[in-house]
Amino acid sequence: MIKAVIFDLDDTLYREMDYVESGFLAVAEHLEGRFGIDRKVTKARFLDSLIRNGRGRIFDDWIHEERLNEFISASELVDVYRSHLPNIALYPDVEPILNKLKSLRISSGIITDGCLKVQMMKIKTLGLSEIMDNIVCTDAKGGDYSKPNPRVFLDMLERLRIPPNESIYIGNDPAKDFKAPRVIGMYSAHISRSPIGTHTCEADYHIMGLGELADILNRRIY
Length: 222
Hints:
By secondary structure, this protein is an alpha/beta fold. Helix content is 45%, strand content 12%. The protein has 9 helices and 6 strands; from the N terminus they run βαααααβαβαβαββα. Helix 1 (16-35) packs across helix 2 and helix 1 packs across helix 4.
C-alpha cells in the first residue's frame, strides 16, 4: 500500500513558464528603472530570444544588442531574475490531492533540482513548506546529489520512515525523474499535462493530471 507520495516541483506542481515570465518581467522592470527602456518591449524580446535560442545567453545578447556592456552585466540581471518574488500559483489539482493524501494519512514530499535560491523562493511563494511533510532541494548538497542519483530518494524516504515499495514519485521529466525510483524499488508516475504522443520513459504510470493519482492510490498497490 502506498504510504508516501513524493513530487517533483517544476511543471508538476506549478507551471514553470509562469516563473520564467515572472522573472523576465522583474528583469525588464529593473532595466526600465536603470535605462528607461519599456518593460513590455524588453520582456517580449526576452521571450522571443528564449524561443529562438533557448536559455543561456538571453541577457548577454540583450546587453550586446543595446550596447550597454559598459554599464550593466548579465550576472546582475541573473541575480535580479533569481531573487525576484515570483508571480506563480499551484495547478488547480494540487491542493485537492494533497488534502486527499492528508485524509488518508499518506506522507507527502518534494524533491527538486535547480538553484537553491530560486527553488526556495518558489516553495515560499507557493506555500509548500506549510503543506508538505518534507522538502529536499538537491542543490543544497551539491550537484552530485541531484536527480537521477538514487541517494536523494533514499534520504527522503528515510526521513519519512517509509520503505521504497510503499512510495511513489510523481514527475514530468523522463530524462531524470524515473530512473532512480525504479532502481530502488519505488513506484513512479509521469505527469504530462498535455498530450505528447507515445510514452517511452521508465515510469510505471502515465497521467495528465494529479486527479488521476487518486485512482492509482485506490488500487492499493503492493
